[in-house]
Design brief:
about 0% strand, mainly alpha, about 65% helix
Length: about 55
């Protein structure tokens, strides 16, 4: 029976692939959107439900 390859061995064999420009934009947009929504939800929470904090 052949030995199953380990994840660490497979990762070492992988070739480096830089991020595409569209991937960088998607990462930046998703981080910005997530951060903005956290602040928006925090503001809504404090404005409409002030007793909960």
């Amino acid at each position: 029976m052949a030995e199953t390859p380990k994840l660490s061995d497979e990762i070492k064999k992988m070739e480096y692939e830089p991020l595409l420009p569209i991937e960088k934009k998607l990462i930046i947009w998703s981080l910005g959107l997530g951060t903005g929504l956290i602040f928006l939800l925090y503001w809504v929470s404090n404005t409409f439900f002030p007793g909960g904090h």
